[in-house]
Structures are given as C-alpha cells and as structure tokens.
Amino acid sequence: MPAERDTGISIAERISHQLRDDIMEGKLPPGTQLVEVDLAADYGASRNTIREVLHQLGREGLATFIRHKGVVVRRMERKDLREIYAARRALELQAISGSLPLQPALLDKMLTAIDAAERALARKKWRNVGTLSLQVHQHIVAQLGSRLLDEFFLTLCAQLRLVFASEVDESLIQTPDWIERERRIHGLLVEGRRDLAAQALADYLDDSERTLMAVLTRLKQQAK
C-alpha cells in the first residue's frame, strides 16, 4: 500500500502505524517474521526506512530480534501482561472516574463498537470480537482528551492483541460475557453513574487479566 501520501508524518511513521494496526487486527500474530526486503517491496520504501520501522516496533514492544530468525512479531510474557494491565487501570479508570465531563460522541462510538462486537460474535468472528473490544476501551481512554495518551494506549492494545493471539482458539477468551459487561459499563456512563461504572470496569480488568494470565501460564508450562 502506498506510503507516500502527505499526512504530516514521515514514511517510517506511516508504515509503523500500519504494521501496528495489522497487529491490532490480528493480521500479524506472534512469531510472524518481519522481513526487510519484503516490507520494502510491499511499501515501496527503502530498506533503511524499513530498518527504522522495525526499530520503532521494537521500542513499542511489538517486535523483537531473534538470532538466526531476524525480526519477528513479539510473543508476550506474563510480566508484560502485568505491566499492560497496570497501565490500563491507570488510564481507563482515570478516564471514567476523573473530573472531566464525558463526551457523548465517544459514548456513542463505544456503543457502536459494542453492537459490532455482538454481530461479530454471532458470526463467530473471534478475531473481530477481540479487535472491537479493544476499540471499546480506546473510546474510554479517549475521554481523557489527550492525543499522546491515545497513541500510547493504541500501543498497549496492540500488545494485548498479541496476548489474545497466543490462544490458538480465541473463542475460549472472546466470550459473550465480556460484551455484556462492556455494555453495562457503557449504560452506567450514559446514566451518569460514574462510580458504579468505575467499579464495574475495575472488576472487568481484574477478571480479564486473570483469564489471559491463565492462558500465558498454560502456554509456558506446555513449552517446558
């Protein structure tokens, strides 16, 4: 896809954003090789530019260098998951329980993503369900009104997507109850019951972390 459009950011930034989006959408699962020459051809960019992109993905915790294999999409570990959820709690709970007024447009976007997740669930599009769930939480963080935090949270979501992809059968983790809980959080926010929404979100994050930690623990034990 062309990377030459004038959007005010460098070619390397545009390519790294696209690769991050591909990770977010589950198109690049953990262990996928990121080959310089192939990416250069795909994006019509120089290998130096692609090298810069791969370094950026490494700094964002989305790629890693493995001896004799080159650069690959990163496999997340339990310590990574703990850090992801510590950051999620800091950002999402502040967005809900802070003093800034909630933006109705973002609540509407949240509901749109929840409805889309339900439709994806009905079609058993598990990867789409996970992506849409992450979008719900991006709209929560967007209530903070910070483009810098939005960008940081996107990277967290891409890292979390890599945890989702660690489970071969995503239907085991993308279950209907998560969507129901997100819908309840949204309803509480619409009603202005922010304290209850914050508690519901805190419980959601605790349970979500436990679920994914169990996945990573099982995979680590199987690898021994």
From TrEMBL:
Annotated GO MF terms: DNA binding; DNA-binding transcription factor activity
InterPro entries, per this entry?
A: GntR_C, TF_FadR/GntR_C, Tscrpt_reg_HTH_GntR, WH-like_DNA-bd_sf, WH_DNA-bd_sf
Q: Where is the HTH gntR-type domain?
A: 9-76
In terms of PROSITE patterns, this protein maps to: HTH_GNTR
Question: Keyword Amino-acid biosynthesis, does the record have it?
Answer: no
State the superkingdom.
Answer: Bacteria
**UniProtKB keywords:** DNA-binding, Transcription, Transcription regulation
Annotated SUPFAM superfamilies: GntR ligand-binding domain-like (SSF48008), Winged helix' DNA-binding domain (SSF46785)
Q: What is this protein called?
A: HTH gntR-type domain-containing protein
